Amino acid sequence: MPHSPLGRSGLQVSRACLGTMNFGADPQAPTPETEARRIVGAFFDAGHNLVDTADTYRGGASEEIVGRAIAHRRADVVLATKGAAPQGDGPNHRGLSRAHLTRALEASLRRLGTDYVDLYQCHLPDPHTPIDETMATLDGFVRAGKVRYLGCSNFTAAGIVGAQWAAQRQAGTPFVSLQASYSLLDRDIEGETTAICREHGLGILAYSPLGGGVLAGRYRRGAPPEPGSRLAEWAAMPSPRARAYVDGLLTGEHFDVAERAAAIAGDLGTTAAAVALAWIGARPGVTSVILGPRTTDQLTANLAALDFTLPAESLQAVGGHV
């Protein structure tokens, strides 16, 4: 299995990244621990090494399950987690301040059962904290040996530049990765953000590569999400933001793209998911594609799809009009 350096660093990561948002200890969680452990084992058996979690996934249960699942092979795992999301009601229990990040990292290390994280990422931008404070804090984690490399998630191009400049001013540790939503349905990072990543040495970790399942054909035009599906779970949340996310995915334009991918897949004798994953894996700047399986069967299918190579004319046809 080929591996590539993550951004402008020596850290070698696999083409696939295992996203663990679905891992939960609650019986109602999409992926209970027994199945999560099988998924982790199958992922490593297939030759991949990058696992991504966050302190906010399933209230911290994802980190706990990941920690137990990788404990016997810790040295071979590139372990990534994220901090910034609210971990309490107080004003200092969220964001990218020194106060919050220090507590967040220590809590993540306890849940993961390890004394270091290979890649620590700012989960969200924080407009209320000076970026110099954030980067100085993160550099301190690296110097203390608790973190090996730094990354960000959901940052704008301007936010990336500001962070890299802050690290440079302090002779500190810069970001080497950007985790961003990227798929045939969401190409917002193309152009300015991808150019900034290239200029400043950030590899892209693409999440939601199947557009929440729309590109895999899991939903139908004009029909509500089926019970038990990921979008049905989001649609049932009381948050207006969650419902807006679902409505924003299930649009006529997006179904046009999904149907075009399915038609190309039919011509090539493969699946729409394989077409979508092959497309995102071939995009400039993308180092690794984050897969978020709920079952071992889903992981196996997605890893096989990611290995598919699209002919040049198909790459152009599927991605030419969005």
- Please provide the count of β strands: 10
How would you describe the shape?
A: globular
Alpha plus pi helix count: 12
* Helix/strand/pairing category: alpha/beta
Main beta-sheet annotation: 8 strands, parallel, barrel
CATH H-level superfamily title: NADP-dependent oxidoreductase domain
CATH hierarchy: architecture: Alpha-Beta Barrel
Q: List the secondary-structure elements in sequence, H or E.
A: EEEHEHEHEHEHEHEHHHHEHH
Distance from N terminus to C terminus (CA atoms, Å) equals: 32 Å
Helix content: 40-55%
Instruction: Please tell me how large the radius of gyration is.
Output: 19 Å
Q: Identify the strand order in the major beta sheet.
A: 3-4-5-6-7-8-9-10
The low-pLDDT segments are none
**SS strand fraction:** 15-25%
Average pLDDT, to the nearest integer?
95
What is the CATH topology classification name?
TIM Barrel
CATH level-1 class: Alpha Beta
The figure for the number of domains is: 1
Question: How would you describe this protein?
Answer:
- The protein is α/β, with parallel strands linked by helices.
- The chain has one domain (3-217, 272-311): NADP-dependent oxidoreductase domain (TIM Barrel).
- 42% of the residues lie in helices and 16% in strands.
- It has 12 helices and 10 strands.
- The chain has an 8-stranded parallel beta barrel with strand order 3-4-5-6-7-8-9-10, surrounded by 6 helices.
- Helix 5 links the parallel strand 7 (147-153) and strand 8.
- Helix 1 (33-45) packs across helix 2, helix 1 packs parallel to helix 11 (296-306) and helix 5 packs parallel to helix 6.
- The protein is globular.
- The mean pLDDT is 95.
